[in-house]
Amino acid sequence: MRAIPLSPDEEPAAMAQLYFYYSAMNAGKSTALLQSSYNYQERGMRTLVYTAEIDDRFGAGTVSSRIGLSSPALLYNAETALYRDIAAEHAAQPIHCVLVDESQFLTREQVKALSDVVDNLDIPVLCYGLRTDFRGELFTGSQYLLAWADKLVELKTICHCGRKASMVLRLDSEGKPFSEGEQVVIGGNERYISVCRKHYKQAIEQGSLQAIYGAQTPLN
């Protein structure tokens, strides 16, 4: 089955493929996922949408975008047997595309399972996630998607200076950037902003956003 083009200028593929759409934060990943799912559904095709159980900012079992779009989603955690679950759904009613939000939280085994969905079931799998964390290090899911995906697509956003934002800063409750601590924090007061590499390094070295933004920081 030929996959639906993900954009008007993208040729449909003859065989299913594993895609990884990666970016810094607030680059429109969830919006792109929801649009891709809609493209299939409006043609009468069935999609499965997954999101990470660990991320419940918009309510459990929901993929939501900053522009107000949303969709119900199946939850996954580190123990979820994705291949088994998807194969069972496919046997009950054919699936034409699987879409995974927050795919940076996938385990190595789950990325392999999604590649098996592509190779064995001939179902396209579209993964959307962050490339690196606030320390500038790869997430496990992103590491193996970068290694194993058939197609890599960078979704771009910009730093305040106009450069491409490729890094993520974690800010504490006082708005100060820091680069130490657990990769994932549940229920904390931290917030994140996307910046270019130059301003990421400056913020970490100086421990302040005001050196970059002046008095009008993103928290004002």
UniProtKB/TrEMBL annotation:
It comes from the Bacteria. Homotetramer. The active site is at E102 (proton acceptor). It comes from Pantoea brenneri. Its EC number is 2.7.1.21. This is Thymidine kinase. Keywords: ATP-binding, Cytoplasm, DNA synthesis, Kinase, Metal-binding, Nucleotide-binding, Transferase, Zinc. It is found in: Cytoplasm. One of its GO terms (biological process) is thymidine metabolic process. It catalyses: thymidine + ATP = dTMP + ADP + H(+). Gene3D superfamilies: 3.30.60.20, P-loop containing nucleotide triphosphate hydrolases. Zn(2+) binds at C159, C161, C196, H199. ATP binds at S23, A24, M25, N26, A27, G28, K29, S30, D101, E102, S103, Q104. InterPro entries: P-loop_NTPase (IPR027417), Thymidine_kinase (IPR001267), Thymidine_kinase_CS (IPR020633). GO terms for cellular component: cytosol. Substrate binds at V184, V185, I186, G187, Y192. Belongs to the thymidine kinase family. Its main location: cytoplasm. It is an enzyme of class 2 (transferase). One of its GO terms (molecular function) is zinc ion binding.
